[in-house]
Amino acid sequence: MTGTDRQRSVLLVEGTDDEHVISHLLGQRGFGYGNGNPPPPLPTPKPQGGIDRLLDGIASAVRSNTGRAAGFVVDANDCPQDRWKAVASCLKKVGVATAAMIPSEGFVGESPDYKTRVGVWLMPDNQRSGALEHFLADLVDPGDRLLPHARKATSSARTLGADFGEANTRKAVIHTWLAWQPNPGLRYGTAIHTHYFRHDTAVADAFVSWFRRLYLV
Question: Of the N and C termini of the chain, which has fewer Cβ atoms inside 10 Å?
């Protein structure tokens, strides 16, 4: 770990798609993520390779960030309440008090044991079931006519033998929509940078507000 890394707060995310989406979104919002790492103490999103490894890393991230912040972005998936309970259980081990339900604006608290600010965001919006792709769908212009068509085309493809599972339907929809953009098939983060996705929708504003409360107090 370099001296600069030791000055940074921490932001753990599930995978590389989350890493790139968050970095490019924050870059578009003027947080200095455009050219490599942002200035300390802002964090570089660190993909953990899945939810299990992220949950396993929560306690150690809180313990090792005294005087800084530790944030965690996780997918709600089918049951936001169950996912929140799993995260809250990990936070309890390091003295972070949580409510029965995550606030709609995202959780920000503190570990009095380690003097670490702690934040949690459940993708897509702390309330609905879903994942990163649901968040991305909320970054599409409300007047866009291709996204509803991508949903219909994806549903039709399943009847014709497309064998992606139900859990991957929203991912298939987003990739289908991206295939119809001027430069087809861009990665999620690059598509934000290219302005195929907007960075100023209500859900984007809410995420940025949570990020500010956690890291820029």
Answer: N
Q: Which domains does the chain have, with CATH numbers?
A: 3-130+199-215 (3.40.980), 136-190 (no CATH)
**What is the separation of C-alpha 123 from the centre of its chain, rounded to a whole number of angstroms?**
6
How do residues 5-42 score in pLDDT, each as one tens digit?
A: 668 999 999 999 999 999 999 999 999 997 667 888 89
Single out the residue of 214, 180, 217 nearest to residue 62, CA to CA.
214
Q: How many CB atoms lie within 10 A of CB 135?
A: 26
Name the packing angle between helices 16-28 and 202-215 (round to 10°). Answer: 90
The closest alpha carbon to 68, from 150, 139, 157, 5, belongs to: 5
Average pLDDT of every residue of the chain: 95
158 CB-near residues (< 8 Å, 6+ apart): 164, 169
SS (H, E, C) the chain: CCHHHHHCCEEEECCHHHHHHHHHHHHHCCCCCCCCCCCCCCCCEEECCCHHHHHHHHHHHHHCCCCCEEEEEEECECCHHHHHHHHHHHHHCCCCCCCCCCCCCCEEEEECCCCEEEEEEEECCCCCCECHHHHHHCCCCCCCCHHHHHHHHHHHHHHCCCCCCHHHHHHHHHHHHHHCCCCCCCCHHHHHHCCCCCCCCHHHHHHHHHHHHHHCC
